[in-house]
From TrEMBL:
Name listed for the protein in its UniProt record: Aldo/keto reductase
Superkingdom in the source lineage: Bacteria
Active site per the UniProt annotation: Y49
Marked site positions, Lowers pKa of active site Tyr: K74
Length: 258
């Protein structure tokens, strides 16, 4: 399985990203350094997380070329009226000339929905960001942005887990050609559930690895987060096995969205 998702315009988005929510200062720096050493090439942060400077320093200190690391940050809705200024602050903190993906973290007020999206598109046109998207948006809101501007988000980052699995919602994104990034997949899952633990035992992997691999089987980009190196490593070690269709279906059946 190819562990990248192709975004419109040709950017390859690594399917395994490293999340940094709730990682502050030293923990953010050390965890991102560890993740990059282990092999992650996709780092997800946000203005809200207040760790952009630590993330940027970790990327810089890793010795990797900037082009090798896909960096995402996000705009808080309350910063919508100052979107460009907020992005410029993020770029200074991250110590980079551009980010690979800039997302609106949550839907703004109705009267700011389209103007904010236009600001993201303008930043992309100016070369400050490579790709733009949204987070926590419904297909209906995405359609409104697209209809008003003629340009749709490349990505929607939304909570996803076996319990939240919604094939119809996934299909709505697929039909629009929008990549889905799932967050809090492990946080919102009972890793002791027999359906997951049983699969893990058969494959000789951890329940967390089963859940993360299940996301990948659905072409959902994952953003696991940990401050422990062994967990950072195991969350990335997903290429050595794939789930049989019946195992994917069994985990799908844990969904409570139906």
């Amino acid at each position: 399985m190819d562990l990248t998702v192709n975004l419109p315009g040709g950017t390859a988005l690594p399917s395994i990203g490293f999340g940094t929510w709730q990682l502050s200062s030293k923990a953010a720096y050390e965890s991102v350094r560890a993740a990059l050493e282990i092999g992650y090439r996709h780092i997800d942060t946000a203005t809200l997380y207040k760790n952009e400077a630590d993330v940027g320093k970790a990327v810089k200190d890793s010795g990797l070329d900037r082009e090798q690391v896909f960096v995402t940050t996000k705009l808080r809705p309350q910063d919508a009226r100052h979107a460009r200024r907020t992005l410029e602050s993020s770029l200074r903190l991250l110590d980079t000339e551009y980010v690979d993906l800039w997302l609106i973290h949550w839907p703004t007020a109705q009267d700011e929905l389209v103007p904010t999206w236009r600001e993201l598109l303008a930043a992309k046109d100016a070369g400050l960001v490579r790709n733009v998207g949204v987070s926590n948006y419904s297909p209906a809101l995405i359609d409104r942005l697209t209809e008003e501007t003629g340009r749709q988000p490349a990505v929607n980052q939304i909570p996803w887990s076996p319990a939240q699995h919604d094939p119809a919602l996934l299909d709505e994104h697929r039909r629009r050609g929008i990549a889905v990034e799932g967050y809090s997949g492990l946080k919102n899952t009972d890793l002791r559930d027999p359906a997951i633990a049983g699969v893990a035992q058969r494959y000789g992997v951890s329940p967390a690895q089963v859940v993360l691999r299940w996301h990948l089987e659905h072409d959902i980009v994952i953003l696991p987060r940990s401050s422990r190196r062994e967990h950072i490593a195991s969350n990335f070690d997903l290429g050595g096995f794939s789930l049989a269709k019946e195992d994917v279906a069994a985990i799908d059946s844990l969904s409570r969205t139906g």
